[in-house]
């Protein structure tokens, strides 16, 4: 199973909904003044509403996911931020990425659910994050995408442990406007290894990330994670 240190990093990345690709369009110059188009007001979500969405989800075995209590989720975010302060991440560009991902936007709401499989000793976690301004979520996603090339391999030293991390991007597509897939392998100095599969989707001001982690997780589980993400995005 994933080490507690690794779980914290996975939780932070999932919570912020970061990672993935983004396409920026260009606008041609015009001499005429276009008619202003009213900007749609993004739907707002409370923590309870997001938790209600999570509570309706089921894992690949048909078992309902267990909603993570809000207080426990908040504690996890705080613990991850504290760990990042003392962690040494190499190369430095990846440290900047990790610190960025640990910042939950002001006014954001979020919820998470999880399912533990005794059969293959894996843990599946789905998180939903809603922000007030869609451009904030899009900006975080682009920042992660830009840093991904530099962070395909990096090390984390914290709490007396050194973890080597390798990340392989996957071409997963969700129903969102932005999608991301990645397979990450973490190896401790002792040789203990765990693998984490991540799928992220972003639609407007709502982001969803599903992760599956364990010693024998492979990219073959991507479809079940895409299904969970799509269920959140609607």
Provide structural commentary.
The structure is a single chain. By secondary structure, this protein is an alpha+beta fold. The protein has helices spanning 4-16, 47-55, 70-86, 92-101, 134-148, 222-233, and strands at 66-67, 88-90, 109-117, 122-130, 153-158, 161-170, 178-188, 193-203, 206-214. Strands 1-3-4-9-8-7-6-5-2 form a nine-stranded antiparallel beta sheet, with helices on both faces. A hairpin with a 7-residue loop joins strand 6 and strand 7 (178-188). The longest helix is centred in the middle third of the chain and has 17 residues, at 70-86. The chain starts with a helix and ends with a helix. The model is unreliable at 1-13 and 15-33 (pLDDT under 50).
Write a brief structural summary.
The protein has 234 residues and is α+β, with helices and mostly antiparallel strands.
List keywords for this structure.
234 residues; alpha+beta; nine-stranded antiparallel beta sheet; 32% helix; disordered N terminus
Distance between the termini: 31 Å
Strand content: 25-35%
**Strand-pairing-aware structural class:** alpha+beta
- Rounded radius of gyration (Å): 18 Å
Helix amount:
25-40%
Q: Biggest sheet: strands side by side, in what order?
A: 1-3-4-9-8-7-6-5-2
Topology as a string of helices (H) and strands (E)? HHEHEHEEHEEEEEH
What's the average pLDDT? Answer: 78
Write the layout of secondary structure elements.
Blueprint: H1 4-16, H2 47-55, E1 66-67, H3 70-86, E2 88-90, H4 92-101, E3 109-117, E4 122-130, H5 134-148, E5 153-158, E6 161-170, E7 178-188, E8 193-203, E9 206-214, H6 222-233
Antiparallel strand pairs: 1-3, 2-5, 3-4, 4-9, 5-6, 6-7, 7-8, 8-9
């Amino acid at each position: 199973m994933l080490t507690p240190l690794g779980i914290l990093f996975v939780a932070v990345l999932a919570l912020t909904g970061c990672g993935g690709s983004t396409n920026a369009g260009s606008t041609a110059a015009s001499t005429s003044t276009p008619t202003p188009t009213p900007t749609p007001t993004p739907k707002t979500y409370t923590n309870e509403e997001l938790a209600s969405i999570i509570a309706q989800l089921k894992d690949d075995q048909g078992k309902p996911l267990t909603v993570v209590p809000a207080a426990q989720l908040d504690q996890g975010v705080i613990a991850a931020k504290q760990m990042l302060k003392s962690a040494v991440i190499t190369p430095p560009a990846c440290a900047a990425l990790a610190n960025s991902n640990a910042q939950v936007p002001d006014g954001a709401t979020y919820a998470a659910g999880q399912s533990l499989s005794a059969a293959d000793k894996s843990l599946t976690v789905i998180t939903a994050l809603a922000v007030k301004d869609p451009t904030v979520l899009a900006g975080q996603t682009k920042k992660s995408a830009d840093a991904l090339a530099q962070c395909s391999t990096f090390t984390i030293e914290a709490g007396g442990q050194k973890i080597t991390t390798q990340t392989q991007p996957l071409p997963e597509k969700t129903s969102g406007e932005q999608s991301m897939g990645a397979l990450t392998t973490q190896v401790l100095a002792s040789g203990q290894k765990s693998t984490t599969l991540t799928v992220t989707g972003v639609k407007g001001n709502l982001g969803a990330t599903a992760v599956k982690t364990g010693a024998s997780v492979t990219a073959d589980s991507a479809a079940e994670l895409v299904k969970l993400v799509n269920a959140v995005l609607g």
